[in-house]
Amino acid sequence: MDDRRRSLLKTVATAGVGAVAGCALPTTASGDAKTPFKVAHTMIPIVGSSDMFPVRRIYCIGRNYAAHAREMGSDPTREPPFFFQKPTDAIQLVMPGKTVDHPYPPLTKNYHYEIELVAALSKGGRNIPMDKALDLVFGYAVGLDMTRRDLQRAMGDQKKPWEIGKSFDRSAPIGPIHPVSNVGHFKQGAISLKVNGTVKQNSNLKQMIWSVAEQISKLSEAFELQPGDIIYSGTPENVGPVVRGDLMQGHIDGLPDINVRVV
Ligand code: MN
After folding, report:
1. Minimal CB count within 10 Å: which of 39, 59, 76, 147?
2. What mean pLDDT is predicted for residues 129-139?
């Protein structure tokens, strides 16, 4: 580990202790703690900076575009938003201009793409009002909520947790984070995904049922949000399968594309 990364980890750990001041049991150990082995922290590059964005939690909203909710078999007009999480180390970094190899995961025979706008938070809180919610956002990225659809459906049918369908290794490919100071907020704009050059998903961010601000406000009623949390804001309609060899190209107007090859 180089010195810069070491000092970054220390900074992150110290911030973690500060964030839980007052708790009887700190959940984050000091960066100076002696450990029998090392565990990597998940970090995402920040465009235009040598700093990295340390990821604390990955939240995802379900069925946030009406046409996608319908294709999943639900009625979007009657459903409040719902959320799930992926493990932090599910992140697979995809730098613009490069094609990243993405291993086809085990157990599935129906592996789906979901192109999504990702909001990255640098502030937290509880019960954030809508009109203050975007103040928490540090930046945005293009992400894929990769899904073992067959396992997700099978578990849903059995009224069991979705986790095996959604929260597995490398299930969260993502591009670097673009600060709001450079790219602003995303309330509309094209969002699309091609497979092998053919457009599969094609919609507009304004079709989201719950805006990023509404998602943050709703999430903060259920969880105390913290700096480092990121939110996958849902996928439009026409999700579908990929197989080994397929090239996925994710696009959101105003951000560079991400290229991911299933291997
Ligand atoms: Mn999704």
Report:
1. 39
2. 98
CA distance 205 to 138: 18
Question: From ligand 1's centre to the CA of 27, what distance in Å?
Answer: 29
How many angstroms separate the alpha carbon of residue 84 from the centre of ligand 1?
9
Instruction: Please tell me the number of Cα atoms within 13 Å of 178 on its side-chain side.
Output: 20
40-262, superfamily in CATH?
Answer: Fumarylacetoacetase-like, C-terminal domain (3.90.850.10)
Q: State in Å: Cα 26 to ligand 1 middle.
A: 32
Measured in residues, the chain has a length of 263
d(CA 147, CA 239): 10
Per-domain residue ranges of the chain:
1-37, 40-262
> Is the full-model pTM beyond 0.85?
yes
Calpha distance 159→262 (Å, rounded): 30
123: CB partners within 8 A, 6+ apart:
135, 136, 138, 225, 227
Residue 28 binned pLDDT confidence (cut-offs 50, 70, 90): low
How much distance in Å is there from the Cα of 194 to the middle of ligand 1? 16
Q: Quote the CA–CA distance of 1 and 207 in Å, as a whole number.
A: 44
